[in-house]
Amino acid sequence: MTRRLPPRPLASASARIAGDARGAVLVEFAIVAVPFIALMLAIIQTSLIYFAQETLETTVEAASRSIVTGKRQAADAAGKVAGMTQAQLAERFRRAGCTSMPAFLSCSRLYVEVKNAGNWNDTPTALTFDANGKISNTFAYDLGSQGSVVVVRFMYLWPLQGAPLFNLSNAPSGQRVLFATSVAKSEAYS
Q1: Shortest CA distance to 144 belongs to which of 91, 88, 76, 84?
Q2: What does the pLDDT look like over 99-117, one tens digit per residue?
């Protein structure tokens, strides 16, 4: 029969803790988990911003094509005959742009501006922000006529999550403004 010696309280406790490796993985993961999760969230947020930017570019391209070919001007002429105001025509154009956006982009966050530049030298290059970083644009809606240079700008206010960890905002109140611009010369249409 083997006889057990009574454990030495301090020496045996520290020896048992030092020799036990069962919880090492848990401790190591606890150390690495927070930075890993933060990195994954930053990657997801950044990729969503780039994806939203590309879909906005595609949307403005399609909307600008309808102006260049005269399709939008014909629709607006019919709307004016029906008694629509310029603001209603602009809202209808914005809503038409919303239909080609994916469902994860909210139409209420989309701002549209269409300017007739007349010629290539008169295309507006000014930013649409004031000194405080707030949008100060008038959001004009002027399609121009045949042969005129038209600037179509879509702006989308993308809400950001996780801003304290990785601040990707470029506008006040934790939002990112996504811009998509198309400059084209209207074709001859009838």
Answers
A1: 76
A2: 988 888 899 999 999 988 8
